[in-house]
Write a structure and sequence with these properties.
about 100 residues, elongated, two-stranded antiparallel sheet
Length: about 100
């Protein structure tokens, strides 16, 4: 947006299996006064169906004058599958 604010987004789409009651939280290693982008934590959960165009978009912004090219992002993803199994996954989605 400007020299001090950079927008970022992460898209969760093209699931290979059905994902129900999806909860997701995307965090980074910069100080953040706002809530981190999430779904299903502060709002309703979502469903992603296999072979559909469904998607979840997590948007946020980082305010800093420092270089963000090596920002560390981590995603927590929780969902129930067709077997009613609860899956909890942590992804390192960092750049650089």
């Amino acid at each position: 947006i400007n020299e001090e604010i950079t927008d970022y987004s992460l898209i969760i789409d093209n699931p290979k299996i059905n994902m129900y009651n999806v909860k997701a939280l995307l965090i980074h290693d910069f100080i953040n006064e706002d809530a981190y982008p999430s779904v299903g934590i502060f709002d309703d959960t979502r469903n992603l169906n296999a072979d559909s165009d469904d998607k979840i978009v997590l948007n946020g912004s980082i305010q800093t004058i420092n270089d963000i090219s090596k920002t560390k992002f981590k995603l927590y993803l929780e969902y129930t599958d067709d077997n009613n199994d609860l899956n909890k996954i942590y992804y390192d989605v960092s750049r650089g």
